[in-house]
Amino acid sequence: MDELAAGRQRMTRDEALSWNSRWSVGDVRLIGEHLDRTGAEQFYRTASNGSVTALDAAGRSVMHLYPGYITFAKDCAPPELAEADWKTGLELSCFQRRGDATAEADRPLPVCPSCFLALPATGVCDDCD
């Protein structure tokens, strides 16, 4: 079995372009243009269905499609991203930034004023109720 294909499901180009139902018509057009530009011919969906990998005729990974953005292999990035030092990518219309996880963890827990135990999500102390 092909090492790349292990745990992945082969897709057609049309299946790859319709993989995320939240992509706008503009997103699909943009993705299609980059698939053409990079010479993508083969497509694989990860076993978790978290992304789609696009490969060129030589079997080299050239693009990754994610629900809210696309990334490129460094030498396959569009000209406006070619100078970026990090893994280059473009946000799509449905892109949503994740909240700052450290801010949530740093927030002090609400405490019961009577017994000083942390309150559950209901805001009502289980011991003093």
Layout of strands and helices, then pairs:
Blueprint: E1 8-11, H1 13-17, H2 25-38, E2 42-46, E3 52-55, E4 61-65, E5 69-72, E6 89-91, H3 101-106
Antiparallel strand pairs: 1-2, 2-3, 3-4, 4-5, 5-6
Tell me the overall shape. Answer: elongated
How do the strands of the widest beta sheet line up side by side? 1-2-3-4-5-6
Radius of gyration: 22 Å
Number of strands: 6
User: What's the overall average pLDDT, rounded?
Assistant: 82
**Secondary-structure element order, N to C:** EHHEEEEEH
* Distance linking N and C termini: 61 Å
| pLDDT < 50 stretches | none
Q: Characterize the main sheet.
A: 6 strands, antiparallel
Discrete helix count: 3
Helical residue percent band: 10-25%
Residue fraction in strands: 15-25%
Q: Which class of secondary structure composition applies to the elements?
A: alpha+beta
